[in-house]
């Protein structure tokens, strides 16, 4: 008997059962993260998913992967110990040792009750050296979103070198993995691609420094077991908040575990961390849903409208931007005409784009003038203030464009401060769009940019909007400010410099709206958006292309921040002649704006726009603060794109449908709505159509019917579109049966 007992104990210990020392759980309203401190003092990742009522079985649940072949699922993987995966942390210690083995020390919990956030801080330390790592997990209770980042502190005898220093590490187990990610350049931003991950490594990254989201976006949706579906299946979605080189790795190992690491791109970025110093990695925002990608997006949107955007609870105004209307070719009168047009239509903000500055090197084209932020006296002899006042008198607010990180070779600034330009001595500094980048790692440049911003705001007390542009990326990297052996700090130095300027600006100008633009959507990420109210999604204002750009953007970023402008067609980027209604309907799915001269519109068009703007004002709170439900993806082979927003109380909703590719009248589709209350009766009103055509216009239909059967709005030709407003009424429901498709 005694013998048997001993055998059982040995067997249990040899398969690692009953060895957990401690479980550490961090919950949100619907989700749980479970970590384990094992008997060796390692911090392991055990669970991320729907909320667990009882986590204690983890204490006896066998860890299959602790055999001699495997790599344990650490909470923050390092190079060292038994790790063969891409390490989240890779360090060369002061004496050249390449290994790091993190040991759990203790943890703390902090609460921000006002915001509904719980912060878990785990204190880890290398087994051999006094190298400390803190893991921060912030749990946003109501939004079901986590944010992870780390702090690395060097208490060793001398400097250490950080090679990999990712913010985020997450091991995931599923049968199959489907990765949705984003690619594109100016005019094709946020194009969506879904791939099934195979074994090995797939990375999403940029090395461009600026315009960092013109190629890939630091965000993803990962569907487990099956391809992405709006309403079903497990999805992990994430976005890195960093405005420079990033890298997201998806490494599927030989055990079919997917190891996700994400953070600053290690590319040419070795970071020397001096003794006594700490480095904090940027935040990674992520969520999980077992109800498909729609739910995951809504979680991220809710988080963004709490903590991800600047001034997240303020309604965004309707903007008229001068760029596509006049480009560089304007004078005071033509701008006043635009302001008159804005006032007539009910537009709330006029933004004067590029071309208003420079005297020795006047900015009449993209050839010169960047850096000389003084009003061009020839073009605008009465200055900015008189224009801003003119707008104010018309009831329109005033905004202005800047590109403060850049300098033209032909500018006073470039002559005065050649040492501020990003370049390498003895190598040519390549031009893009005839401009160079200022070295923001240099504190003198940070001061210059802050002062430039400040001086532009001093041009008038009535400037309430800034469009912050950045029209090139960084190559041939070199800083005359950074020492020769710290050139690899440039990327971080630049970004920290940028954030430092933003902080100073936000302290002095808390109420100014600042739009982020980088040749369109080249800086669409949560590092920038923390300081900005909205982003310019693309210079491509073609309404057909916009279906894809805005759909992609809104998988991760909310509509309230998505600059979507109605423009005149054809224009520089837009050759397709699409009806004004379709263009306006598409712009109304985001933060509405305009790019045109009023003179370019027909009388009928301007009447219709005026009415649509009025209608948008009445429903924009639903678009900007409601829940997004994607009904049909523009990538769907049906040729339709449909979406809707539903107010949080489910009483009001806006539905949109667009025909992108008409496949014959027999192929028109029925759209089942989503997000409504099945018990409420909704009265339907067609918007932006002087002669409503929808058969259900004015009718009251039960939510149950709209959700289960839906309707066919009969868009029977390419570029037809419809916008419907649904409002819950207390009247009895009149169930309208689905009408057959009429022959065109
Ligand atoms: C690029 C932006 O994307 C455009 O909207 C416009 O502001 C131009 N720059 C101005 O140079």
Task: Describe it.
By secondary structure, the chain is α+β, with helices and mostly antiparallel strands. It folds into three domains: 7-41 and 53-308, Beta-galactosidase, Chain A, domain 5; 319-626, TIM Barrel (Alpha-Beta Barrel), CATH 3.20.20.70; 628-729, Immunoglobulin-like, CATH 2.60.40. 21% of the residues lie in helices and 30% in strands. The protein is built from 13 helices and 37 strands. α5 links the parallel β23 (349-352) and β24. It is globular and about 75 Å long. 53% of the residues are buried. Bound molecules: (2R,3S,4R,5S)-2-(hydroxymethyl)piperidine-3,4,5-triol.
Notable characteristics:
744 residues, alpha+beta, TIM Barrel, Immunoglobulin-like, eleven-stranded antiparallel beta sheet, 13 helices, 21% helix, binds (2R,3S,4R,5S)-2-(hydroxymethyl)piperidine-3,4,5-triol
Can you summarize this structure?
The protein is of the alpha+beta class and 744 residues long. The protein folds into three domains: 7-41 and 53-308, Distorted Sandwich (Beta-galactosidase, Chain A, domain 5); 319-626, Alpha-Beta Barrel (TIM Barrel), CATH 3.20.20.70; 628-729, Sandwich (Immunoglobulin-like).
Q: Count of helices?
A: 13
The dominant shape is globular
Ligands bound, unique = (2R,3S,4R,5S)-2-(hydroxymethyl)piperidine-3,4,5-triol
Task: Indicate the percent of residues in helices.
Answer: 10-25%
Overall pLDDT score = 94
At the fold tier of CATH, the topology name of the largest domain is: TIM Barrel
What is the second-level CATH architecture of the largest domain? Alpha-Beta Barrel
